[in-house]
Amino acid sequence: MKKLESSILNMVLALVCVAVIMGAILAYIHKITEEPIRLQAEKALSDGIKDVMGGGDLKVAQTDTIRKEIKGKQVVFVAYKAVDASDKDLGVAIESTTSGFGGDLNVLVGFDPEGTILGYTILDHSETPGLGAKAEKWFQSDGKGSIIGKHPEKHNLTVSKDGGDIDAITASTITSRAFLLAISQAYDAYHDVQTDGSTSATSKITE
After folding, report:
1. Distance between CA 123 and CA 43 in Å, rounded?
2. Cβ neighbours of 132 (radius 10 Å)
3. Is the CB of residue 85 less than 8 Å from the CB of residue 78?
4. Cβ atoms of 145 and 157 closer than 8 Å
5. Which of 15, 82, 120, 156 could, after both became Cys, cross-link 109 (CB 3.0–4.6 A)?
6. pLDDT of amino acid 37
7. CA–CA dist 15, 189 (Å, integer)
């Protein structure tokens, strides 16, 4: 049998076959992992809402999407209005995204009915490894730059280097600024929800 001669055509055909096979494998992997990833993301969000709103048995009675134009850019916020088992208003959790040092910083922050910060969690970030973990703890009630219990209209939620009330993460001023901007913009969205409000979905979150 004559050995197949090497040629540009043969090489192109070989590369096409490899690409098709790899594409099929990746498509299959995506299909079998898509649902588990979606469920994991939903659980992380559900747990996050409960965490930033103080825990306990609560439900999301209202979900709103708020679109705002900030510095010429369209920014989307998602608001989750929480109530307890007796439908008492617990406040609103706002999902807010800003640009940090390494990319987007996605924060979920909880406000009580008066607008005071109850808690926060970082849902996703593209910061340098370690910075995200620092931000997750630094601004908590026991952190050096705590924002918990503060009201955005009564406190200057910017870093002290910029004249604000909050100590920045050590050697991470850019990340701190991005985080605090996400909090301030979340409060603006919270104010819109409390002023207007429109129901679009309902879900339940329990222990």
Report:
1. 11
2. 18
3. no
4. no
5. 120
6. 61
7. 51
Read off the tokens for 24. Answer: 């099929």
Q: What does 162-184 look like in DSSP terms, one character per residue?
A: GT-SBPPPTT-HHHHHHHHHHHH
Structure tokens that stand for 12 in this block: 């192109």
d(CA 1, CA 4): 9
CA distance 182 to 186: 6
Name the residue type at position 156.
N
Strand order in the sheet with 73-84: 117-125, 104-111, 89-99, 73-84, 58-70, 203-205
The number of residues in the chain equals 207
Which one-letter amino acid corresponds to residue 58? L
Closest by alpha carbon to 200, among 79, 89, 53? 79
Residue 16 confidence class, pLDDT cut points 50, 70, 90: confident
**114-139: average pLDDT:** 82
- Is residue 63 within 8 Å of 193, Cβ to Cβ? no
DSSP 189: H
Task: Give the C-alpha separation, 126 to 103, whole Å.
Answer: 5
Beta bridge partners of 122: 107
